[in-house]
Structure formats: C-alpha cells, structure tokens
Amino acid sequence: MDIVGRRFSDQVQYVFHVDSGPALGRTRAGTRLLCQFDTAGRARCWAGGEEALEGDASAAEGLASRSGRLRVFAGLRDDPYFNNVRGTRRALTIAAEALRAGQAPRTASGLPRFDAPTLARIAAEWRRTDGGPARNFLAGWTTSAIVLSVDLDVVATGGPLLAVWARTERRQAVPADGAMPAPGAPIDRMGRALTGNALVGTLAEEDIADQLKEAYNRAEPAGWAGFATEIARNLALYDGLDGVAGNQWLADAKDDSPARYRRLAELLADDRLWVDSRQTRCRHYLAVERQAFGVALPPDCGGRTPLHEVNAVFRSLLVRGTPDVADDGLRHDDREHSTVDFPFLSAP
User: Fold this and answer.
1) Positive or negative, the Cα torsion across 171, 44, 339, 69?
2) Domain limits at 260?
3) How far apart are CA 348 and CA 33, in angstroms?
4) Pfam families per the record (predicted)?
C-alpha cells in the first residue's frame, strides 16, 4: 500500500482486507491486516487474531512477528505504478469536447460514435505528454509503502481464492488486551487499479466527479454493486475509443442496449483484486478474472505484481478487448522492481 508522503499518519490506520473462498466472487471468510504508526514512525501491526508485531519496520528486511508468519516493511520506496496522466487527460478532453459539440452521437447502449479524425486525435494525444514523448506523471514522486508478507494459512481460511482490497480509516484505539483495533470511518480505498479514477465520473463536471469518487471510496462492500450503473456508463465511453462497437472485453457485441456492459460493470463493481493462492507463477494481470470468463491462459496466480503493465492491460481490455496495447505510450516503470526479494519495491 503506497501513499504520497514521507511518513505515515498517527491519525490513520492502514488496513488490508483479504477475503477467501472457493471461486471468483464467492468468499466465505475475511482477514484484516492492520497497521498503525506513532509520531516517531514506529509501526504496530496485526494480522487477524493470529499475528502481531511492534517496532521500527523501516529497514529493508522489515520487521517480523515472533512466529515469523508476518513481516512488515514501512518506509520510503519507489511506487511501481506508472501512468501518462497528462496524455490520458488530453485524450479524454478531446472525447468530451466532441460529445458536447454533438459530433459523437451515442447509440442505445451509450457508446459514442466518434468520427475518424477525432479517433485519430484521441489516439495520437493519448500517446504524448504535452505534445512530446510520453512521460510517467508519477516519476520522482515521494512515496512511502507498507509491504506485508504473510503466510497463506493466516489469510486463506475460507478457500484458495483470495480477494484483496485495502483501505485507509480514521484511527481507532487499541483495546486493553492489545487486540486489533476496530474499523474506523473510511477515508480512501483501492482494489483494482484505475476503476475509481477511470470509470467513476469520467467526463462529469469536476464537483460531480469528486462527489461520485468520494462516495465510491467510502462505500462499504455491501454498497459497491450500486456503482455498476455508473461504471457501465463509462465503459461505453471506452468501448467507443477505437471506433469498433462492442469489442470491449465481456461486452455483448450484438446487444446495443445498456445491458451490453453489464457483465463487466458488475465484475468491476466488486472492487477486489483476485489471487489464486495455489499458483506460483504470476505473469498476467487480472488472470483469475479473465480465466473465469473463458480467456485461455496458462496457470497463473493473477493479482498484480510490481512488474505488471496495469494501465496497458486494463485500458486495452476496455478499448478493444485485448490486453496488448499501451494506449498512453508507456510500457514500464522508471525503476527496476522485484517479484522475489522483500520488500519487492525499488529503493526511493
């Protein structure tokens, strides 16, 4: 879990949720992994009711619990996420201007029909930054990371499929017995990358988009399904960015109605990143989700390693149904990361 800043707040608790079950979308147990920090930056972390640790976790090797089943690093690292934000915003601005000018009529499904010159401008500007080569907007940002390594038997109590999401909350007091603190009021949340930023209030006015994103970030899991309609509306926008109707992943090419995007919208509204804990090869982003809907892939744990091209895979699936195009012109982070050596992320 990465934040922008040099230290973690002593007024916030940082929580990983790992739900577990037998299949995609079906979980029957959940484990919270929570860290708090004091004003000196010392960490106190828990993994369910099984593991706990306390101390300075800023050394590269991290800090281990007494049993060794939980290890935590908390300190400055390089965030492996990369994104040509300026190029993406410019591409979406061109799309929004065409829609406002009536130059891209929408079909019954909500898909916009951009003309060929507009599609060419969108594609060209998406691959550039301020008119030049694509640049990573996040390069050089000061970020701090909480990295947890936990034994599977601590978190896979409901089955081998793990559904992971994380949240920041208002800090709660530690009980007298030293047990994990109770949940606090939610602040921000992340499951899969980009869902909140790319598919909630995508072209809405700024104040409306902010309200939608705040509501999405603070929603409890029981309320996530309520955002499927908003997500579907913006899936239609992305489906139109290559000029081919209905070729988005999981879209119904023959159904020109809002139902065309329902399957993917409902999948993404359940904002958890899925990991198959029985697999040790992790080469494909969203592998569990894609395999569940018939995509032929070799056995893969899914999830999201620091090496995955998250933007390329996700946005390409939304635009053309394949995971192989980097629309924003970027293919890798500015630093080298590891999938083997704890804490995995490059030094700052």
Assistant:
1) negative
2) 85-135+193-271+305-320
3) 25
4) DUF4331 (PF14224)
Bridge partner list, 163:
19, 274
Cis preceding linkage at 117, omega within 30? no
pLDDT in tens, the chain (348 residues): 999 999 999 999 999 999 999 999 999 999 999 999 999 999 999 999 989 999 999 999 999 999 999 999 999 999 999 999 999 999 999 999 999 999 999 999 999 999 999 999 999 999 999 999 999 999 999 999 999 999 999 999 999 999 999 999 999 999 999 999 999 999 999 999 999 999 999 999 999 999 999 999 999 999 999 999 999 999 999 999 999 999 999 999 999 999 999 999 999 999 999 999 999 999 999 999 999 999 999 999 999 999 999 999 999 999 999 999 999 999 999 999 999 999 999 999
The reply to whether 147 and 211 lie within a common domain is: no
Please give the Cα distance from 238 to 265 (Å, whole number): 12
Measured CA to CA, the distance from residue 296 to residue 294 in angstroms comes to: 6
The number of domains in the chain is 2
Query: How far is 230 from 228, CA to CA, in rounded Å?
Result: 5
**pTM surpassing 0.90?**
yes
216 and 263 inside one domain: yes
Tokens found for residue 273? 């990143």
In a domain, 296, yes or no: no
Say whether 97 sits in a helix, a strand or coil.
Answer: helix
Assess whether 186 and 197 both reside in one domain: no
Q: What is the spatial distance between Cα 106 and Cα 240, in angstroms, rounded to a whole number? A: 9
- Per-residue DSSP letter, 64: E
